[in-house]
Amino acid sequence: MPVLFTAVLPKGTLNALRQPVLAIDDQLALRTWRAQDVPAVRAAFDCPRIQRWHPRRMDSDEEAWEWIAGWTRQWQDEIRTSWAITHNDRAVGQIGLRNIDLEQGAAELSYWVLPEARGAGLAARAVEPMTRWCFDAVGFHRLFLKHSTENMASCRVATTAGYVPEGTLRAAMLHVDGLHDAHVHSRLRTDEGNDDGSA
Ligand SMILES: CC(C)(COP(=O)(O)OP(=O)(O)OC[C@H]1O[C@@H](n2cnc3c(N)ncnc32)[C@H](O)[C@@H]1OP(=O)(O)O)[C@@H](O)C(=O)NCCC(=O)NCCS
């Protein structure tokens, strides 16, 4: 059955683009994942604090490589994307989009930072160039993120990055200890003050 509205973004919008390198500053950047990042990916999936909020386990370097290689297909399928957050080209974190919905022009943010790089506000700094690229280059109109109400570090990241708190979803996120209430934060292209979102 045909829908009665025009999609915000047509199918193929993301696939038509190359995943860019996005600079944060001279040393920090967002880039695609590479084979050399296997140890960083293993370290992330072994980190108890990351596992706490990203409840998956990785058992081998092969799985880490499959995780890395899988991002190309997921970009082509316009489902999910991921960038390595790098310091002097060494992966120290992850930022990406989940639940990409081109029809609605919306996507959900995801991020983690390895313990060695935490404490300097890196995640919030990484959110900024990705948000700009999503609004200006792709044309998304809404980016949002959800975090357990117990994950106060993520709440601070979202707020610092200008993601406005929208409310609480009850028992909305399943973690290893059961269902957690979740805060939702969002940023809209039109939040920047102009109808088209441009500054
Ligand atoms: C969330 C995460 C990416 C933040 O890493 P970071 O960018 O290095 O963040 P910082 O350590 O600099 O802390 C950012 C803010 O959170 C606060 N914070 C950090 N850890 C905290 C904690 N355990 N409890 C409460 N606040 C905390 C800091 O004080 C800082 O606050 P400020 O903005 O007022 O200065 C990192 O903690 C992480 O990878 N966590 C596990 C994965 C995760 O939670 N991902 C998000 C899932 S929704």
UniProtKB/TrEMBL annotation:
Q: Which residues form the N-acetyltransferase domain?
A: 28-191
Q: What is this protein called?
A: Acetyltransferase
Recorded GO cellular component terms are:
cytoplasm
Tell whether Cell membrane is among the UniProt keywords. Answer: no
Alphabetized UniProt keyword annotations: Transferase
What Pfam families does this protein map onto?
Acetyltransf_3
Q: Which organism is it from?
A: Kibdelosporangium phytohabitans
> Its Gene Ontology molecular function terms?
protein N-terminal-serine acetyltransferase activity; protein-N-terminal-alanine acetyltransferase activity
